[in-house]
Structure to design on (230 residues):
């Protein structure tokens, strides 16, 4: 039998609520971002019909094709690494970019946002796990990058994002998610103009409950909604 997206969503939303309550948080402070990498438009429409309001895409070209097919009835977020030569499309397609990890990328987005007359919300991607296989600014330079991006006229820094190394035991990600939350608090205490630490984008299908307990406001969930990719 095909995976029931509606049933999966109900289960995930229940677990998000339980994790938030365990941590003394309001479950309404956590938003589910359905990751649609390799998912066909028919299945995405099914998720939208089941209540999904935020979609996350890894690649600009794939998002471009899906938005053309589905439209903009929900918000689209870019969660994958961005090349500066794709900045024009990133600005025109997405409501938020989670993966700004260099001043070069930020400058390209700011330039395109100015041309398109937009103010683009962004998150700074931090490599808290110091994983050579993951993108993200290193922790020592993260505050500097927040300052640089926050000073750009057409970008608004709204928080931090991370993709930790994959661990079978989800508890092993807890220290990394806690570190990102602590970094967010540190940045907030600096009161950098143009930077509002409102969001933490962290947690995926295998560890989103831990992420919620540690303060996630966006959890990026794909396979737990749509089934394993083929």
């Amino acid at each position: 039998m095909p995976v029931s997206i509606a049933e999966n969503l109900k289960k995930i939303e229940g677990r998000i609520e339980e994790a938030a309550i365990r941590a003394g948080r309001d479950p309404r402070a956590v938003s589910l971002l359905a990751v649609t990498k390799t998912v066909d438009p028919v299945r995405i429409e099914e998720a939208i019909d089941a209540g999904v309001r935020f979609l996350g895409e890894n690649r600009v070209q794939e998002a471009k094709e899906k938005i053309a097919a589905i439209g903009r009835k929900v918000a689209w977020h870019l969660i994958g690494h961005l090349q500066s030569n794709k900045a024009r499309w990133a600005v025109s397609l997405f409501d938020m970019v989670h993966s700004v990890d260099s001043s070069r990328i930020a400058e390209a987005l700011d330039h395109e946002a100015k041309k398109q007359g937009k103010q683009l919300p962004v998150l700074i991607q931090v490599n808290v796990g110091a994983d050579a296989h993951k993108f993200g600014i290193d922790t020592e330079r993260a505050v500097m990058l927040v300052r640089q991006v926050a000073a750009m006229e057409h970008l608004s820094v709204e928080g931090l994002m991370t993709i930790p190394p994959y661990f079978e035991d989800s508890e092993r990600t807890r220290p990394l998610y806690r570190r990102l939350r602590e970094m967010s608090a540190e940045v907030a205490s600096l009161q950098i103009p143009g930077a509002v630490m409102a969001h933490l984008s962290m947690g995926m299908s295998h560890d989103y409950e831990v992420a919620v307990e540690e303060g996630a406001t966006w959890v990026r969930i794909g396979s737990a909604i749509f089934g394993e990719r083929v």
Remarks:
- The longest helix spans residues 5-22.
- The beta strands are 31-35, 54-57, 75-78, 96-100, 120-125, 155-161, 195-201, 218-221.
- Residues 140 and 158 are 19 Å apart (CA to CA).
- The two ends are 15 Å apart (CA to CA).
